[in-house]
Input
Amino acid sequence: MRAAERRSAIERELNLTGRVDVAVLARQLSVSPISIRRDLNDLVEKGIARRVHGGAIAARMPSASGPQIVRRPPPARSEGGIIGLVVPSSHYYYAGVLEGVKAAAVEARVRVALLVSGYSQEQELAQIKRLVDRGVTSLIATPAVIPERDPRTYEALREVGSPVVLLERDGGDDFAMLDSVRSDHEFGARLAFQQLADDGHRSVALVSAERTPTAGWLRAGFEAKRGLFDGATERMAIPSAPEYAPELQESLDTVLDRFAQLGTTGALVHSDLAAVALAQRARERGIDVSVIAYDDEIAALADPPMDAVAPRKHEVGRLALMTALERAGQSAEDVVPRHVTVPPAFALRRAQDA
Output
């Protein structure tokens, strides 16, 4: 991630939460604390942030007559009280989800208490307890891992006593009593491979980090469309790492070697960062492959712009907030578990190459 992208992510976090922590940002953005401190110093110079011990807070913007404090009244509390929200990150994919939550909260005039776990299960468990002890009337949570890998967070959510909505996760068979609102990533993968089939590709691949919560749904979508291709079809794993990490770059070269061996001409790659890096490396090596990015965070900025599966993140966040608010006004006896999946869109951009 370039410095400008990091600063944009940090500024977005400041806008959402009002405060950032150096250690947490360094872990989330996979850079050194020194780099984060430099980014914060740059934001301080621009009047966006103010340094505090261990991090920074959103700055008060100066005016011609000196510092001016804009006091905004907190949103009026509805019958839903305070909605607790625990997510693993506030940047990249989740920035769009949080914008949807925020828009729905403003419309409903309900307050949201946001905590960011940094993909730490121990941290999210502590944050869930903190919000429950605070007395939130509903809780929206995105556990760091799926229940099949480690069910502890889902077990804790099942026991909180107040309504719970899983965000971009589901509880599987064991935790089906928990409401969930998520992107239909399996459908998104089916969209991509149907497009590749329609474009005449015969040998295709799914390239993704195998241990992400999204991976299982992408695999299911891939398997559903595998029969459309009479050439080689293969799943290929890459590490969950920043696009500039040596281990990812080495893995992408291995993937491209396999493409050349199998005659692979089309691929769905998760995430956008890996997709852009793979397409760039393929051009450098003279390998002709059509890459569809999954997430659509930066695919439009690639050169040339890339086709992408675009989860409707804003809508997912909005629906999660509205579900949590609705549940807050219902008695437990009246609740039938609700599992909402939002189908992604497909962004076709290849015409922009000209």
User: Anything to note?
Assistant: DSSP finds eleven helices and 17 strands in the chain.
